[in-house]
Amino acid sequence: MSRTSHTADLPAAFIEQLRIVSGQHHSRKILTDPADCWAYGYDNSRRRSLPAAVALPESTAEVAAIMGVCAEHRIAVCPRGRGTGTTGGAIPPQGGLALSLERMNRILSVDPANRVAVVEAGVINQDLQNHLQPHGFFWPPDPTSAGFSTIGGNLACNAAGPRTLKYGTPRDNTLGLTAVTPQGNIIRTGSYTTKSVVGLDLTRLLIGSEGTLAIITEATLLLTPAAAAETTLRASYTSIKEAAAAVSRIMAQACQPRAMEFMDSGAIRAIGRLDRNPLPAQTRALLLIDVDGTVNGLQESVDAIEAAARCDGLLEWLQAGSAKEAAVLWQTRKNLSPLLRKLAPGKINEDIVVPVSRMAELIDALDRLARAHQLLIVSYGHAGNGNIHVNLLYDPADERQTAAANECLAEVFELTLSLGGSLSGEHGIGFVKRNFVGLEVDAETMAVMRGIKNQLDPLNILNPGKMYPDQPGH
Fold it and tell me: Please, what's the largest Cα pairwise distance for the chain?
């Protein structure tokens, strides 16, 4: 597939040109020592690949100059933030260049009158939220990795988190971008206003493209005013079926929660040792719900959601009495993913999506797959939009378990699509899932996608081997 250089040693002339365009007096902007480069050779997928060099630009102009040099020498480039992704999207090509945007971490402006912030791609999500708080605003996307992941990384995968339910994804909360093409040209997409139909919507095209079309260096973000009041609720159910039916009822009413998280029986057992508020013994499914609104209207919203949530299978309805209690309830959810890493040496973490009304079917079928393959499957995620994180836990040292996990994964994807779902809600495709894309995207549509990629990146130097399936003969 590749038309790029993947040799272990990059040409000396190439490295010299990188140093020149990055500033001769800033040699630490270009790293070539393997001891330095290894830190940029992995992400949260636990895959590794040593880049031949690492570039650490500090401006859009430097990114453009670096890409111009890479295009001239046909060197493959992998743009990256902090490497929190789980699908290998930030793994550099062997012998290529890792381009880290970590030093481009400035919040350039906050404009409360127009609900806009302009930031560089390397800004940490939580740092932005903390900066916006005194202004009375927030940026809605809040992935679990918000304390470590960058805005650029969030945009690259359209990673959203729990608040997506009420406030939308990065695509819904981004007005425009500054980006650098594989040839080193600087482009600007979108506008500073919430309405504009001038030209093609390149903003939404680049968001979610996983760094395969252009490198996002700045973003103009649409902010949301912080609610005056908020609370957290927890509902325990006797079965998945009852919990899923409650989710459908809650989402069918006018009063929408800000977030609604789901945990199956496996997740409940995993967090049992951490939960300071023990669940009823018969609990087989759990909903964690956030509600926000006005001070006077908050309880009315809570009452409406509770009415929709109630059924014969509801074991317990708990409302946090303070912000501290709410934080305790949410901490168990946020600790779940790292806890599962400790329970099993191997963990395949998928973020499939199904229609909300078919969540119970999904979980029941996953239980059958777990028994058939003799694996532990733990599921949790964003119940309000059917985005479920399915975790296959196994021991990589056990050949049977490893083979069973890979076989089971293919069946999980087939199951998801049979229920009218999608293979990824926010983790992206990266390297790990690229050869499953053809299950969801037909050949004609894939040809259009490849055509866009080839038009923007004819040399195939920008994050090659990611997102698009291998073609026969390549």
Answer: 72
227 within 8 A of 293, measured Cβ to Cβ:
yes
Its pTM surpasses 0.90: yes
Question: Which strands form 314-319's sheet, in the order they lie side by side?
Answer: 314-319, 229-237, 285-293, 259-263, 376-382, 387-394, 346-353
Q: What is the pLDDT of residues 2-49, one digit of tens each?
A: 344 333 578 899 999 999 999 866 568 999 999 999 999 999 888 899
Homologous superfamily assigned to 229-418? FAD-linked oxidases, C-terminal domain (3.40.462.10)
Closest-CA residue to 158 (of 172, 166, 169): 169
What does the pLDDT look like over 288-315, one tens digit per residue?
Answer: 999 999 999 999 999 999 999 999 999 9
Distance, CA of 377 to chain centre: 21
- Complete DSSP assignment for 78-107: EEESSS--SSSTTPPPTTSEEEE-TT---E
- The residues pairing with 237 across neighbouring beta strands, listed in sequence order, are 285, 314
CB-CB contact of 177 with 189 (8 Å) = yes
Which residues lie below 8 Å from residue 468, measured CB to CB, with a gap of 6+? 212, 434, 437, 446, 449, 450, 453
Q: Do domains 107-225 and 229-418 have the same CATH topology?
A: no
Residues 5, 103, 45, 32: is their CA dihedral positive or negative? positive
Which residues does 336 contact at the CB level (< 8 Å), separation at least 6? 263, 267, 270, 271, 380
**Rounded Cα gap, residues 261 and 11, in angstroms:** 50
Bridge partners (DSSP) of residue 98 are 54, 78
Domain ranges of the chain: 107-225, 229-418
- Three-class DSSP category at 316: strand
* SS3 annotation, 443-463: HHHHHHHHHHHHHHCCCCCEC
- Alpha-carbon span 219 to 184, nearest angstrom: 18
Distance of CA 213 to the CA centre of its chain: 18
Q: May I ask the CATH class of domain 107-225?
A: alpha beta
The three-class DSSP label of residue 370 is helix
Instruction: Give the helix, strand, coil percentages of the chain, each rounded to 5.
Output: 40, 25, 40
Distance CA(426)–CA(423), nearest Å, equals: 10
CB 174 within 8 A of CB 188: no
